[in-house]
Amino acid sequence: MAKSSNVRLGKQMAALLVVCSTVGACAPSQADPSSRFAPVERAVESAMTRHAVPAVSVAIVDDFEVVYAKEFGFAEPGRPVNSETLFQAASLSKPVAAVVAGEAAEAGLISLEADVTDLLTSWRLPPSDFEEPPTIRTLLAHRAGVNVPGFPGYRMDETLPALPQILNGVRNKNEPIRVVTEPGLREYSGGGYLIAELAIEDATARTFEELAETLVFEPLMLELSTFEILDGADRSRVAVGYRADGSEVAGGGWHLYPETSAGSMWTTAPEYAAIVIDVMHSYTDGTGRLLDQTNARLLLDPDFAVGFGVSREPDGISIGHDGANEGYRTRFVALPLVGEGVVILTNSDTGDALTPLVIDEVSEILHWPGSGWSTPLWAVMVGLVVLAALAAVLVARMRRKGPRPQIP
Prior knowledge:
- This protein is α+β, with helices and mostly antiparallel strands.
- The protein is about 40% helix and about 15% strand.
- It contains 14 helices and 9 strands.
- It has a 7-stranded antiparallel sheet with strand order 3-2-1-9-8-7-6, with helices on both faces. A two-stranded antiparallel sheet has the order 4-5.
- Helix 11 crosses helix 12 (about 295-300).
- The protein is globular and about 55 Å long.
């Protein structure tokens, strides 16, 4: 009997430690977070009005703890968001998928370096013109030469295809997923995640949803996050998605994503932040509950990042990712060596106008060095392309006109 009581006490203490480390509930009393992060609140509320974003969830991490978490707005008219309201994480699913793969490798279930053609049993990847075989690591690092960057999702009245069907191509949704370019170069590919996902499922005889639950969510005691498909029956649990014109996402309020590892995760900002915190702990000193330090540093290698976006900074690295599903825009950025970061989830296509403003405010409050994450990479690339195109046009015009005549 005493032994049973000790076990229960131990579990209670473990649960308390998780709460303390993820939300700062046991930290000494500090300045009121609402006062400290008032500029963030003002930025959120202003941007929500200006860009017609119905709901936002924000979690801010400082010294490896969630020190501020707040929800703004409405999940749908008449229903305010709360701390348990779920948002589609969209491509923020990918870093978590990489952590699932890393955990499966540490458990001896798979090898990140295995040729996926040796793991796949329920579907065959057609041969390509290239010698280098795709591995779990190269697929999750967007370096296996695979096509199909993203997926539009499915209305609730559409039949959801099985994963092998998606890989073979679905009319009006995605072309067949194949190795189409030279492996090694970074080419963003949600399709590559699906090949890796099926290889992991075939090798472990478990669904990806189950693996995420047992390898990530349960150890961190995250009770809300899931990779399961949520449909109309779950409406009261989620923030409904909205298009740029303010209309609800057609076909049920949000799209369903059977492309699990690439974009189907549902979560809250504080729970997603708990995953980021654990990865930062693992990377920094090997004290995370999930990955060991070797695998954490493998995933967050700036030269070959797996799942995460990683950039070098003067004092270490910054990590992050953007997400864009129909009716949802999401983003996180974090600095592992100092244990700081921010997670922002929105339920609107216009949410990507809000997220960089929040990051700028957090960056100023926490005194971050310039990480470049407040400006989306795609915006930088588009700007460079536009400038290059303008330069080319000007040069062509000058050549057509020839030398300017001399004025006597």
